[in-house]
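Morning. Coffee machine broken again, so started the prediction first thing and wrote up yesterday's gels while waiting. Chain of 268 residues, entered below exactly as on the submission form.
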Amino acid sequence: MKFDDVAERGLVLLGCGKMGSAMLAGWLDSGLPAASVWVNDPFPSEWLKSQNVQLNAELPQMPAIVLVAVKPQMMADALPSLKAMAGGKTVFLSVAAGITLSVYEDMLGRDTPIIRAMPNTPAAVGQGITALIGNAHASESQITLAQDLLSAVGQTVLLENESQMDAVTAVSGSGPAYVFHMIETLAAAGAAQGLPEELAMQLAKATVAGSGALAIQAAEDPAQLRINVTSPNGTTQAGLDVLMKELPDTMSRTVAAAAQRSKELSNG
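Came back before lunch.
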């Protein structure tokens, strides 16, 4: 099992909301023993209570990893209780948005191995993608462990530097909301052309989901896939003539606005 060290030393999950629950379900399905997981959550769900993990119990002294999954505004209250584990062989992995590595180092000590990660909501169905960056004290093996754990809910990518995290937040962190809005607007446009609303929504959801799956699995890049669908002077071309006049600029401004807000939040 690739989680041998975690199974032996333990994993602490601080916060178990939707993202934490998705990750925990993935780990347990991958063979991590429930007895090796400690979860601290003041309002545990019925699902969490049924998983046989060590819930709100006394924590191990030196777990392999502490995964911080509480909301950013709760961090200052939650982390001090774990400071006894800092500065040693325990790596802290945070999936909280907008909190930089230096903030964690200030709270936990600069000699503490810390990894910052940005997952996205498709992790709830095992289709997420998570970007990671570690501080100077996070070893290669600890980063690999973090990748293994986060692979339970989708793909992982390593960043070259922390400054890329704002763009990641704007593209993949916030991106699902952009896609959900596209589904909304595509369905509404179908209904405006005479389709029943439920049918229009079914068509829009399946089209976006299927196109995303094809984009991942196909050897061609998305531009070529678009060309493959587009017959000269056909219906798709007529639609693209409208969409391609506005979408590139709109998407560029959308991602830039989200990245700027990420920078503002990171700077307090």
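The longest strand covers residues 128-134. Going to sketch it on the whiteboard this afternoon.
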